[in-house]
User: Fold this.
Amino acid sequence: MNRLNALTEALFASAVFFLVGASIGVAQLVSGSGPVTWRLAFARAITVGGLSVAAGAILIWIPDAPVLGQVGLSAALASLGTSGLERLFFRIMKRKGEE
Assistant:
């Protein structure tokens, strides 16, 4: 039964992360100057929501990370978006190549 509770907790946390990311992604889309279609809004919600769920990976490095910290990381990843994360990744890799 304890294992089921842990799984339920993890699924709930993932759903919260996804909703935070999807909300941020759609809000960024709506606040932009381009046209908004349902297809674009749905795609943005799915991709940015998926990025936010990846924030759960923080538990690999910090197993006792507080929920508020996890949600904050989720929001940060969602705000960066895929292009922002690519730029950040390339900057980090460039620095490692210079060392």
About this structure: Residues 38 and 44 are 10 Å apart (CA to CA).
